[in-house]
Amino acid sequence: MPADTVALVAGKGSKSSGGGPGGSYWHIHVGEQRAGKIFINVIDESPLGQHASIQIFLNQRSQGRRIGRVAYRLACEACGYDTVYAHMRKSNVASRRAAEEAGFVADETPGHTQLVMVWRRG
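Above: the chain sequence. Below: its structure as tokens.
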């Protein structure tokens, strides 16, 4: 999937999907087709405390096409936060790979029940 065909289009979101204080919501588009959504919420969760947390949901037909890795990167660059965390099931290999290719690394802070990855600007 050529990276230049993936674009984020800002949307309203809801309180739990990027529409709350400090949050951002985008529709993911590939050309003219909507491929899914991605959003950032500010959450307060142990052991990290208050932090920006990103979530992505791709339509089934858009999965496995390298769209997620581009969307992760674009959203992190656009959000204005210097540090963004991604929380995912430890068994979710595809999401982990997409996050890693977007610049996320595993966060080794003790106390996580899920796989937690972190992206840092710069």
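The radius of gyration is 14 Å.
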